[in-house]
Amino acid sequence: MSTLGQKVIYQLYPKSFYDSNHDGIGDLRGIIDKIDYLKKLHVDLIWFNPFYKSPLNDNGYDISNYKEIDPRFGTMADFEELVDKLGEAGIGVMLDMVLNHCSTEHEWFQKALAGDPYYQKFFYLRDPKPDGSLPTNWQSKFGGPAWAKFGDTGKYYLHLYDPTQADLDWHNPDVRHHLQDVVRFWEKKGVKGLRFDVLNVIGKDEHFVDSTNIEEEKALYTDTPIVHQFIKELNQATFGRDPEIVTVAEMSSTSIENSIEYTRPNDHEVDMVFSFHHLKVDYDHGEKWSQVPFDFMKLKRLFFDWQNKMDQGGGWQALFWNNHDQPWALTRFGDPVNYRVESGTMLATAIHLMRGTPYIYMGEEIGMIDPAYHSMADYVDVEAHNAYERLIQEGHSEQEAFAIVHSKARDNSRTPMHWDDSEYAGFSTVNPWLIPTDQRQINVENELAHGSIFNYYQRLIELRRTEQLISEGHFSPLLEDDDQVLAYERYLADQAERLLVLNNFYGTTTTVTLPDHWQGRAVHKLIANYEEEVTLFGDQVTLRPYESLVVKG
Ligand code: NOJ
């Protein structure tokens, strides 16, 4: 059995992977059809975005039945077959557990609405303020107020996300027991991994108060002390009983200190946190819906800070650039036009060799980029449409608002997987739910035949399995002031050998002076995205556009 540090996880967005029944939406049988492809990468686990019963208002993060598969994705028999067949291929299934909220179509919410007091206690129902205004001034993360009318009762229910995603009241032990039962249900089906959606917001204070700014507001419901208690209880009642199960908690604006506490093995909470600080370095003053170049030094400081402190504190983190909530990193931090292969492989190198568990989001391994959409009608996501409306209201022209949405929309990475260069990218035979673009150049068929990104990922995955420096090593930052190169070292307690990782983040050549202990050192190249042997270092190293060089010595 591989250790946590040796594993690599693939994230698969079922709605966009492969449509086997020709309805324009990906499905479980489609995934079964593509197992041979998945096997080639040799990942340990696949995290699947939700495919439970859902009205799909937030693409499945609005679950109306936790123990059923949505018919659009398939049946329970399909799921069981998927678990078996992936198991035979040596790949475990990691499921998405969306336990902070459920759909307002869920029977719990419906019964609550019908007046059942038992289920009314499942949700945060509150009276308006004496002046008739909402219980608090909190904002939903998708825009608009975080409270919606609870039928005609005069009360309001809390929804931190879409109004159709009602927050569950974890203070109620019955809620926690029902949710634990959900986790056990899937564990019994052979699931080997659990990804918990927005887990650090499950412990809202029961006394709701107004906030004066967004940071203060987040603090009122994020990382509160009781979250740790709830997670410990969940651990003991479910996955903690099976050492094989890998757990990851998505935690948007968490702190390093909390992340250490969430993941230190002796605290028995979760294996790792999945946080997004490094993906906010192209936000203008913290505002996602803006368009500014990414701040490399900020990115670097964040990586170094998290890597260092998590290492020192014994915490563990997920390493990733892409996911279903982010535009493609290659478009954002690389150069998809002139250096797609170089910048794609450089970005992969930069994070795969850090301390933590790497995630590859489907399509990343073939160098997918943001789609070339031309109108808001091409987008489906509620968040994108809300943002567009808000930008217009704030005075942006249609063109500006569109350009901003185009650069940040979550749909960017939700487009269908490009299997071949056909009209629907080999994803479907009918018009898909989101339109693919650029499949003429970027597709699996091309990549496997002539590309070099996919096999670069294969090598990175293999290296993590075989090199203890990568899977277990400590982290130390290098060249901290260099504004073009991200460099770091990994070393084991015996300090015998070290790994040096150099990544040029820009499309120009640059030369760096090596730290003393690497100057004149005999080295062995482990992986690089440019050909050329390196066996002996001088005092300096020159890196070509988006070059990554990894040596052991
Ligand atoms: C995080 C998920 O990744 C995102 O897609 C979803 O919209 C929110 N949580 C709400 O569940």
Topology:
Elements: E1 9-12, H1 28-33, H2 35-41, E2 45-48, E3 52-53, E4 65-69, H3 76-88, E5 92-97, E6 101-103, H4 107-113, H5 117-120, E7 125-126, E8 147-149, E9 156-158, E10 165-167, H6 173-187, E11 193-196, H7 214-221, H8 225-237, E12 246-250, H9 256-263, E13 272-274, H10 296-313, E14 318-319, H11 329-333, H12 340-352, E15 357-361, H13 382-393, H14 398-408, H15 444-450, H16 453-466, H17 468-472, E16 474-478, E17 485-491, E18 498-504, E19 510-513, E20 524-528, E21 540-543, E22 548-552
Parallel strand pairs: 1-2, 1-15, 2-5, 5-11, 11-12, 12-13, 14-15
Antiparallel strand pairs: 3-4, 6-10, 7-9, 8-9, 16-17, 17-18, 18-22, 19-21, 20-22
Bound molecules: 1-deoxynojirimycin (NOJ).
Salient structural properties:
globular, eight-stranded parallel β-sheet, alpha/beta, Oligo-1,6-glucosidase, domain 2, Immunoglobulin-like, single chain, five-stranded antiparallel β-sheet, 553 residues, 3 domains, TIM Barrel, binds 1-deoxynojirimycin, 16% strand, 22 strands, 17 helices
